Every structure is written in C-alpha cells, then in structure tokens.
Amino acid sequence: MPENLGYSGYYLVTKGNSIFIMGETEFGLRNGVYAFLYYMIGMETFSADTVVYDCGNVVDFPIAMEIVGKADIDMILPSNYLDRDTAHAMGMLAKDDVFALTEDKEYTDPYQHMMFGNYWHNSFNYLPYTTYMSDHPSWFSTSSVDGKPFQICYTARGNDAEYRLMIETAYAKMKEFLGKSPNATTITFTIEDNEEICHCEKCRELSDKYGSNSAAVIMFINALADKLKVDYPKVRLLFFAYNRTEQAPNTVDENTRCRDNVAVYYAPIKANYNVSFSDPKNAETARQIQLWSQFSDNLYLWLYNTNFDHYLLPHNSFEAMAEINRFCVQYNVKFIYWEGQWEQMATTAFSTLKEYMNAKLGWNANYTVDELYDKFFPAYFGAAGGTMRTFFDELIAHMKAHPLTGTINEPIGTADIWDRETLNRWMGYINKAYSEVDANSIYFKHIKLESIFVRHALIALHNVTDDSFKSDCKELNIERYSECSHDKYGYTCGSLVGVPNGIYW
Fold first, then answer.
1. I need a surface site. Which of 68, 81, 121, 189 has the fewest CB within 10 A?
2. Are 163 and 153 in contact (CB under 8 A)?
3. What's the gap between Cα 141 and its chain centre?
C-alpha cells in the first residue's frame, strides 16, 4: 500500500481475481468502498436524499485496477446539518469522527450529540470558574463582568506554582474527556466565544514581546501537549486562533513553535467570503494563514459559509469556495470546516449545492465550479435541472452586480438588493421548474426548498402575502432565519415557530 495516504486516503488494486480496498484508517477504508462503487457503477451522493448510480452496468471480472485516492484537504466537515451516513457517503466526516467531546453531559440522542455536543469554546469545561475561582483566582482573566471572567488566564499571572497546578488540573480533565471519546484523533482546548482576553501584567508582557495574545496560549497548549504525547501519542491538541488570539506571534522561537502534536485552528471571522484569499480584499487573512503555517505543521481552518443574520438569503461564496480551497492547499492545510447553518435542519438559497461542492473540493481542489454545477443540477433537480441552472446563473450574476462584502453579518436584507421585479422573474423560473417534474417526486421538493429564499424576500421586503410560506417551511424543516446568538429581530433564537406574519413574516 502507498505511504502517506492520510486520514481519508484509500488504495484500490486488483490482483488476479481479487479486489483489495485499503486505507490507513477506518475512514480511509470506507472512502475506498465508496470510491470502488463510483468507479464500478457511477454511484455518487449529492445530498441526503439524492444518490445516483447506473443500474445497467455489467462489470466483467477480473478487471485491472490500481487507484490511489488522496484528498487535497485530509479532513472535511459538512457546513450544515447532515446525518453521519450521508456525510460519509459524500467523503466527509462528522464532528465526533474527529474531535473528542469536551463536556460532562451525556447524550443518548445521536442528533443532539452531533448538533449540540460541545467541542470548542471550552476552556471553562476544563477549568470551571465556579469550581476554581475562589481558591485559584490567578487561573482566570482580569477581564470579567459581574464576577464572571471572560477567559482563563493562560499565564496564571506569572505564578509558576499556580501555572503548574493549572496545567495538571486541565490535563486531568482532558484525560477524562478522551476516555469518553476513545476514537478521537483531536481534542480541543479553545478560548471562550467573546472578544476579551486577560490583561494581567504577565499576559501583557508576552503580548508586547510577541505582538500577539496568542503567544501565551501557545505556551500553555504546548505544556498540555507534552503531557498528552506521553499518554496519547496519536492525538492532536488544538487551540483557536480566533478573535483576540487570531494574530500569529511575530517570532517563531522555542516558546511559540507548536509541538508536533499541536494544531492551530484559525478562524478568519472578518474575511470576505465572496472572493479568494488571494484577493487583495483578503490580504490580512492570507497573511495570517501564511504566518500560522510557520508555527505548526498542522493547520486547521474554520471558515464561514452563510450570513448569520440572514439564513434565508443567499451568501455568495460559491466561486470563492473553489478558489479558497486551492489557496489553502498551498499551506498544507489538514482540515477545513466551512461553518454554515449548523443548527438549521434544511437550508435554502442553493446551500445543498454548497455542501456538494464542499465535499468535492476537499478531495480535489482543482475542480472548476462549472464542472461541479454541471454534475449537480441534473442530478438534484432532474428534468428541471436546466431551468434551475438558469435561475442560479442569474442569481450569481445579480449578486456580483451588487457591492456585497461577503462578510458573515453583512446587512443584505434590503429591497435595494432584492428588488421585486427580479424576485418575480425568479419565481417564474421556480414555477416553470415545478411543471417539468412530477409533483410527488423528490425533485419537486428540492425546487420548493429553493423557492423559500425568493418567497421570504418577497414577504419580508415587499409585503407580499404568501399563505403557504410557513407551512412549507415546516414541511421542509426550515426552522430558523438567523443564528441563535445573532438574532437582531428580537425573536427567540431566530426561530420561525410562533412568529406572526408581520414585517418579516
């Protein structure tokens, strides 16, 4: 078997009358099985309810075959909710295929575990301030609100004895978490989800020296990683380069160079996702990826693939996804998570196409978007594929014609962007597509899913009455119009449930 297939790679080879499917991991072996089916009968998964294959294929054995499958990005997670079986069939992973669960809560429901299990923003899961703050105040940030610290202090205020005890305490908890996730390849210790950091004298000293708040974090993580390597030599420890720790240090030295079992999880939350990272608009994001690749051989990326204030409106990252993946391959990125509507059961505005692209581009970053569009539309929309492609092409052109920034909370919910005449024309495509497929087919449902964005814009921005809108959302499992923590409309967690049909609904 070839070496260095990675976590996801596979090897297919025939010898005589036997076919061998191999991989370095269980995931690689599974990918090999799906690849074998693709090469034999053209089997390909486009979504949870769309699997295409050639029923008429007759394969004569023995056959000559030798295929090495190695992904450009070794590990890919789905952007949106996707059941594990579908994610695997598409060549992707579920969160808990990779990460150890880092909370004490037990999950009996696999859906709840997959959707809401805690894997990040978890430093307080290791060192809860409610347990330790009274006896060990130096473990927590000087920044706080109502007595609750925003973060831990990654230097323990410079107190060596407290620092050692803090490391020991955190590592003991890490071993507990790993004991509950014996198959995990990565465990995370990541900052809390806010824009604060500790401002104690020692933290400021390191920040001034290295030009970044992340230096103190790296030193703390390295100390944990030294312990981890002894007990779990095949597990990586991951920290966030995010918000106040997004900037890489200005110097690579014995203190800031990550251990070989440490991974950097860089999350460029302020990037423009309408264009490539090689575009001048993303110069700072590109610079940080280049810098972080010097600090660790294990670079993970948390990217963004939706507008978190406007789930039901399009976020134009389609072409950028391909270009960004190609950019990342240059820097030996091991893992990409394109965060989408993680708590939404179904997504409109061609997000299913994005998921297909996400899977394919992880394996081959050199796919062109047109190659992927040409495969997706006829498979997913059947006889209506041509009409839906025309709609989609117009949508892309329309978004390009408007000065959008591609940031994740851009105010895109305006009638200036989504004018009534254009929306009505797109509804014409939707209605034409309906007429091209059977009303009881899965294709009809897929068309209805894509109608939701257009109808939402007509209702919210142009006061159009649509009596079936909410019932269609319920049928399709569309439950939210924004992320829970970014609900600017004032409704609980952006949920559609119980919202009256007023200015927005």
1. 68
2. no
3. 29
Contacts of 332 (CB under 8 A, 6+ apart): 293, 297, 299
Q: Which residues contact 346 (CB under 8 A, 6 or more apart)?
A: 81, 449, 476, 477, 478
User: Rounded to an integer, what distance in angstroms lies between the CA atom of residue 411 and that of residue 414?
Assistant: 8
Task: Report the interhelical angle of 369-381 vs 385-400 (nearest 10°).
Answer: 140
CA–CA gap between residue 128 and residue 126 (Å, rounded): 6
pLDDT of residue 363: 96
Count Cα neighbours of 125 within 13 Å in the Cβ-side half-sphere. 23
323 vs 279: CA distance, rounded Å:
10
Cα–Cα distance between 436 and 433 in angstroms, integer? 5
Residue 100 DSSP label = P
Residues of the chain below pLDDT 70: 57, 59, 61-62, 484-505
Other beta carbons within 10 Å of 468: 10
| Predicted pLDDT of residue 492 | 46
User: Which bin fits 494, alpha (ψ -120 to 50), beta or left (φ > 0)?
Assistant: left
Q: Which residues pair with 77 in a beta bridge?
A: 337
| Cα distances (Å, whole numbers) of residue 17 to 61, 62, 65, 281, 441 | 7, 5, 11, 55, 41
DSSP strand pairing (299-304 vs 75-77): unpaired
pLDDT number for residue 141: 97
Q: What is the dihedral of CA 267, 273, 275, 277, to 10 degrees?
A: 0
For 162-284, where are the E strands, in sequence order?
Answer: 186-188, 236-241, 262-266
Tell the burial category of 61 from Cβ atoms under 10 Å away from its Cβ (0-12, 13-18, 19+): exposed
What is the number of alpha carbons within 13 Å of residue 130 lying toward its C-beta? 2
The answer to whether 186 and 240 have CB atoms below 8 angstroms apart is no
Q: Which residues pair with 50 in a beta bridge?
A: 47
Integer Cα distance of 119 and 97 in angstroms:
12
Q: For the segment 177-194, what is each residue's pLDDT rounded down to a tens digit? A: 999 998 899 999 999 999
pLDDT in tens, 234-267: 999 999 999 999 999 999 999 999 999 999 999 9
The pLDDT value given to residue 481: 83
pLDDT at 62: 64
Cα gap 345→82, rounded to integer Å: 8
Taking alpha carbons only, the member of 274, 279, 283 closest to residue 306 is 274
> Whole-angstrom Cα distance, residue 14 to residue 32?
13
- What's the CA dihedral at 459, 465, 468, 469 to 10 degrees? 10
DSSP 450-475: HHHHHHHHHHHHH----TTHHHHHHH
Q: Write the CA distances from 156 to 107, 219, 228, 239, 450, integer angstroms.
A: 33, 12, 20, 18, 52
Q: What is the pLDDT of residue 497?
A: 47
**CA–CA separation, 299 vs 335, rounded Å?**
7
